[in-house]
Structure formats: C-alpha cells, structure tokens
Amino acid sequence: MSGVSSVIRRPAFEKSNVELVHGLWANFTGSKTAAADEDDPDDAGVPNGNLPETSRSIPYTLWTSIENDVLHIPSNMFHFRGLSEERSQYDITVKLFLLPQASFHHWRQHLQEAITAVLDELEVESIDLLIVSFPGISFEASSEESGGCGSNKIDATEPELLDFILDAWQEVSLLQSKGTVGKIGLAEFGRERLQKFLPRTAHRPAVDQINVRDCHVLPQPMMSFAKEEQIELLTHNDCTNILPQGTLRDILGDGEHGAGVLAGPDSKINGLTGDVTPQWVVKYTAVIRDRGVIENKGYFASADLSDESPR
Model's pTM, two decimal places? Predict the structure, then answer.
C-alpha cells in the first residue's frame, strides 16, 4: 500500500535502549583501550573486548575531553566522522528522545544541542527527517477505538503538557524553515492528541511514529484521520524512557562494567561525584538511497551532573 495513510512497519530489532546501552559500553571500552595503548604500547590490543587491569586504572581524563565546560565521553579523537559518499546519496533520519528527568523549559535548547551533535558527527548541513519523542506520551490500547487498539489517554495535565510541546515544536519548525531539517514528525500521538495539536501549529508533522506493542492493526479511525491529514504512520520498537538514570549511573560508574568516570561513595578511582541526570538521547541513521544500506548509525546522549567535583 502506498500513500500517506499507509502504516510502514519497521523490522522488530532489539529495543533501542538495549542497543544504546551496548553501544555506549562498546564505545567507552574501545576509547579507554585506545588510551591505554597510547599510554603503554607494549600492552596494545584487548582480547575478547575486555579491558586488562592496566586499562581499568586509566583515568577518565585521558580518554575524555572538555569543551566549553562540557565533558565529552569519549573524546572526539577516538572515532571517525563524516560519510563516505556525497550528501545527496543519503537519507538521514534522526529521532530525539526528550527524557522524563529533563525540564520542560530546556527542551528547545536540547533540540539545538542534539541536532548540532548529529550534523557535526556526519559532517552535513541538513537531515531528511526529524522525529521528536516527548516524555509522558504513549500510544495505548483502548476500547474507545474500533479494533481495540487505541488512542492516547488525555489526563488532567494534558493542556499544560501540550503547551510545552508546542513551545518546543517552534524550535523544530525553525529548523525546518532554515532548511536544516526536511520532514518533521512526532512519536506516540494518537488521534485525540493530534486533533488538539494540529490546529495550533503552522508546521504540521509529516510523520507520526507509533509503538503499537502487541497490537497488530491500528484502529481504523486513526488510519482514516492520518489519511485525511496527510500524515504518514510509522511503527517502531523504541522505549520512551530510553536511558533511565540508574542505567546511566551504572554505565559511567566504577563497577566491573562501568567506564570509571563516576566515583561511588567507597570508590578508589579518581572520578567525578554527584547525581547524574539524563536529559536527552538522539538516534541517527544514514542510509545509502540507491542500495538501501545503512552506512552510519549511532547515538548521542546528554546528561547533567550536579555537585560535580573530582575525587
């Protein structure tokens, strides 16, 4: 089926939070290993992807960098940037997850930071599709829709949440107006929420990405509404809260599989202390159009660290 009312189902790969955690761990491990090899060339190479004891003691300052008071983990020197072919050969899709712990008032700033990170990483000036996932929104099963798989539930905080979403959407609209973003889209918006959202914006979403979970068929009212409003429906398998606070603490901590950036209460490492709070995660994919091959796929994540101090 073709046309904007069709539902395009993505392959059911592992959920993106698992992919993200594994990716972060592998990236940190590789960067820390590279730093250890530079520090001790005789110990170069890491069998089976495990850090030797000499590498575990490598201070985070050797494989991270600070720029404009922002700590980059790992340092940009440890990976390749850019695409192998001309920009016109790619479809670049970006999905931004604004996380529950982040303040509504910082959403526009987070949008700017995330898009800049992807543009710099791929060394391009624009992306083809930006999808924004807002916290507190999910497409839930409901008996209200025929077919039994339904609409968003609208709760008492909905008007205020919608106001914050519309404010952030102004930044999305600005990116589209500048040509930095081609198509723009939302995630998890049911028919009722779209009916409230669409009349209040001049820059309408071209895409609505929905996690239908165990529901195999979207309700017909949603399908009909999307067709009428010329919104393409996509399905996905992402988690809304893709990076919980505890998970990030484990990844950056001083445990067996931690990166050794954050020091615990009884830690012997020279790490940072304080509460780490995830703010946003952005996922990007660059597909070679003619071949349908994914050449570049990755994530960036941003977090705040309160009461930061080295041990």
Answer: 0.84
